[in-house]
Known about the structure:
Layout: E1 2-3, E2 6-7, E3 10-13, E4 20-24, H1 35-41, E5 46-50, E6 59-60, H2 69-82, E7 88-93, H3 95-106, E8 111-117, H4 126-144, H5 149-159, H6 174-181, H7 186-196, H8 205-208, E9 215-220, H9 224-236, E10 240-245, H10 252-255, H11 257-268
Parallel strand pairs: 4-5, 4-7, 7-8, 8-9, 9-10
Antiparallel strand pairs: 1-2, 2-6, 3-5
Helix pairs in contact: 1-11, 2-3, 4-7
Amino acid sequence: MTIENYQFNYSLTSNTDKPVILLLHGFMGNVEEFDAAIDLLGDDFSYLKLDLPGHGKTQVFGGDEYYSMANTAQGLINLLDKLEISKCFLVGYSMGGRLGLYLALHFPERFYQVVLESASPGLATEAERLDRVKRDAQIARKLGRSLAKTDFTAFLLNWYNQPIFGNIKNHSWFERMVESRLQNHPHELVKSLQFMGTGSQPSLWEKLQKNQIPLLLLVGEHDEKFIDINIKMTKIAPSSQLKIISNAAHNVHLENTLEFVQQLKVFFTKSVPSDDQ
């Protein structure tokens, strides 16, 4: 669907009278990211999943500023309007979680409850953001040179060596996940990294203190960095709770899909809406 500066590649699975969950994938993910979780959630919800700008088959028209978090968020609100979804649940993973938090804090009237998986409010200080921009620029240069499939594959294998991903490379589905990531185009991913990376996004720490939407923060037990971040989030964010998921690192929804889904079911079904669907 083409909406102003975006042509979103999306899939909307509607189950009659069931509320919609908007699902936002992480960096280098795509529309398929949450399929295993959706299979377990079944017919209890409707599902809106999509390729975020810079990913999959979604196209961005106009300037590079439309890869930014603020513009992407507005584009998603416009998509919800086009699809006549006045209010929904939201689940965001990593980069999608940062975007999901931005949406929740800037458009709170559009979301019942929000689940943030391995996410953060960004970096609190200008110095931290500048340092991260420099590191992201180094990653972007490597990614931009990965034009051949073999180079892109090597980049991905190196990417998943990062400590936050734990033992993800040992899982039986890891090769399938890499093949899914390879559907992206490196040059488009570079733009996403440059304009919606952690260093580029606005800090949400101060605004988080005024949050009123129920937030469920999920992190894997082997992801110490994000456990620390999310503990800090719960201390300042009203209406938030933290759950640490066993046998998982950063990518909770793939490493422990069953517990991830159980947490969503418990959280969302506490107040399944009967109107505004």
